[in-house]
Amino acid sequence: MKILFLNGPNLNLLGQREPEIYGSLTLAQIEAKVRKHAAKLGAEVDFRQSNSEGELVSWIQQARGSFDLIVLNAAAYTHTSIALRDAISAVGIPTIEIHLSNVYRREEFRHRSMIAPVCKGVISGFGANSYLLALEAAVNDTRK
Ligand code: CA2
Predict the structure, then answer these.
(1) S-S: 29 plus which of 3, 25, 43, 53, CB 3.0-4.6 Å?
(2) Ligand 1 contact, 27 CB (< 6 A)
(3) Does 104 qualify as catalytic in the annotation?
(4) Where do the DSSP E strands lie in the chain?
């Protein structure tokens, strides 16, 4: 099984600021955890980050035929991006929305997700473990 992990804007700053909200791990350290766990589960992983909405859209489009599932932390684009939502709908690849923080404990504007209605499910609030939980969900869901 091939899983594409996509990370949106500012997640390249993880580990440097706001550790009380996002934890102290860098994105590279989260990626290492994901890769280790994926190896145990027999899953193949690609892990990317972009600050550009267009690049994320292009990666989702290009995933068709190459990946079985997308795990997407769209960061702030979660709350704004009709383009990401349309891309997820268009490619038809099951997508899991994830967040490090529990967005429902935070500002009102983070309570709305543009992409959740076209996603298989949402995992929010478990820090770096949100990534590992999504991996578990991805593998278990497709084994059914
Ligand atoms: O909790 C999450 O994973 C979020 O997707 C993170 C986004 C935020 O806009 C979403 O509402 C929830 C923000 C990512 C910014 O990452 C930073 C990392 C370190 C320092 C500052 C920002």
Answers:
(1) 25
(2) no
(3) no
(4) 2-7, 44-49, 69-73, 95-99, 121-124
